[in-house]
Design goal:
The protein has two domains: 271 residues, Rossmann fold (3-Layer(aba) Sandwich), CATH 3.40.50; 179 residues, Rossmann fold (3-Layer(aba) Sandwich). The chain has 19 helices and 15 strands. The strands form four sheets. It has a six-stranded parallel beta sheet with strand order 4-3-5-6-7-8, sandwiched between helices. The chain has a four-stranded parallel beta sheet with strand order 11-10-9-12, with helices on both faces. Strand 10, helix 12 and strand 11 form a beta-alpha-beta unit. It is globular, with a radius of gyration of 24 Å.
């Protein structure tokens, strides 16, 4: 594979080489209990950076990233979810011996925590969110010191990349102790903050805006979300860069959607917030119309304990309509299972209430040649327009979605064209390798601006390409 950090002069004689970067990605994990778009986003970027020769490392927080994370190596999980919660609620645990932390942070314990209802929602965790944003001044200052010390002794990075803005409280201590710049991704932080009690939500936004000063560059996943967060955090134009999410098209099996059975898919955490009920209701409407007897519905993405009653209600609706055999709820959604899911799906719709900053399931589906059908909210219109691999509908309600699905199901030639365009978008503008090269360019900019002198930030050097000497003589 060509090294993307090599640059050839016009005559092909000289090569400009830049040393690989050392990059530490700090990523909150989901424990594998549901489809975590942010976890997947960060892991795909991580894989692409490693393939390009950079020395990147994942540092999981709270929970393991996935239920079977084989590339995490010996990196521990920091800020273990159970220990963190107990220390926040019960001061006695803040003085517990180290072996207690090790017990609470053991993989079996964290896997158990991943399925708990309150591990993935803000309600009840407002105080902890505020404390985390206070960084070295918060109750988790010892956890922060452990993480920084581990980086100091095990992996001296050139740049630290935080997964989301709820972690910006860590940046000041990271910069002070490691002497390196810190960048931070932005994706759907408002979903966590805006459901809090109003007083806490205001406090959290104020702290995020204050601590944003410690971030060298923010990286937003869409133009839509760039505009949104510039307002919320008071960011200037030069403080934020827009970089869409990408995937490796080689990881996905492309079959034109027009050749598949007429099955509609859903891939995300199966909850009300992600609009699963909107899709189920749209499907029930569709089945009442002539010519859709063969249409099926395939749903996957996992759940938390919070989602149990909601899912039970959806299954009851399907049963009442006598459609149990045409609606399938899939439990598994890891890479192998997602491949099988994509092989069975013609169209994909995840009608998130209020939209999203991006939605990486869209690029995954498009890589498999599956057109997406999304409401015209959030960043969905931006992504559909940039890809040409789907369509949007005006109102995020069952009737509008059913109408959009019916249009595509009745037009195989349009499905065929959208499927081809979806795959082309995955191979082009949403290809993770091109996006990773742009990301490393941003890393180098902030490193240079900070005056970094790490092993990956040494000045570029020019060396003679093979055969260059002979070329010059001739």
């Amino acid at each position: 594979m060509t090294n993307p950090n090599q640059y050839f002069s016009n005559n092909g004689i000289r090569v400009r080489e830049e040393a690989p970067l050392k990059i530490a990605h700090i990523i909150p994990g989901s424990g594998g209990s549901f489809y975590c778009g942010n976890c997947l986003r960060d892991s795909k970027l991580f894989d692409a950076l490693r393939r390009q020769g950079h020395d990147a490392i994942k540092i999981p927080m709270y929970l393991p990233l996935f239920s079977h994370d084989t590339d995490q190596g010996m990196t521990p999980v920091f800020y273990g979810a159970i220990s963190l919660y107990l220390k926040q609620r019960f001061p006695l645990f803040r003085h517990a011996p180290e072996w207690v932390d090790r017990l609470l942070n053991a993989r079996p314990m964290l896997k158990l925590a991943a399925g708990m209802a309150n591990s993935t929602r803000a309600t009840g965790l407002e105080e902890m969110t505020v404390s985390m944003l206070m960084g070295e001044q918060g109750l988790q200052n010892q956890e922060l010191d452990k993480l920084v010390h581990w980086l100091e002794t095990h992996f001296r990075p050139d740049v630290v990349h935080l997964s989301n803005a709820l972690l910006v409280g860590m940046a000041r201590r990271l910069r002070e102790r490691l002497g390196v710049p810190v960048v931070c991704s932005l994706q759907d932080e408002h979903v966590w903050v805006d459901v809090m009690r109003p007083a806490f939500a205001r406090q959290v936004w104020a702290l995020m805006q204050e601590r944003a000063a410690d971030i060298d560059r923010f990286l937003s996943v869409s133009r839509y979300y760039t505009g949104f967060m510039k307002g919320r955090l008071g960011l200037t134009e030069d403080k934020i860069t827009t970089l869409h999410l990408g995937i490796d098209p080689d990881d996905y099996h492309y079959v034109n959607a027009s050749e598949k059975p007429r099955t509609i898919g859903f891939l995300s955490r199966m909850c009300r917030e992600n609009g699963l009920d909107i899709l189920v209701d749209a499907f029930l409407l569709l089945k009442q119309r002539p010519g859709h007897q063969d249409v099926g519905l395939l749903l996957t993405g996992g759940q938390t304990a919070d989602d149990g009653p909601f899912l039970k209600e959806q299954k009851q609706k399907v049963a009442a309509a006598g459609l149990e055999k045409q609606v399938t709820f899939l439990h598994d959604f890891e890479q192998e299972e997602r491949t099988a899911f994509f092989d069975r799906v013609m169209l994909l719709s995840v009608p998130v209430r209020g939209g999203e900053a991006f939605g990486i399931y869209m690029t995954e589906a498009m890589a498999a040649g599956i057109p997406v059908v999304q409401p015209a909210v959030g960043a969905f219109p931006e992504i559909v327009e940039a890809s040409g691999g789907g369509m949007t509908y005006p109102e995020n309600d069952p009737g509008s979605l059913a109408e959009a699905l019916e249009q595509l199901l009745a037009d195989p030639s349009r499905v065929e064209a959208l499927s081809r365009q979806a795959r082309l978008a995955a191979e082009g503008p949403f290809n993770i390798h091109g996006l990773a090269t742009r990301m490393t360019g941003t890393y180098r900019q902030v490193v240079a601006a900070s005056g970094g002198e790490g092993p990956g930030t040494s000045p570029a050097r020019e060396v003679a390409a093979p055969g260059a000497e002979a070329a010059v003589k001739n």
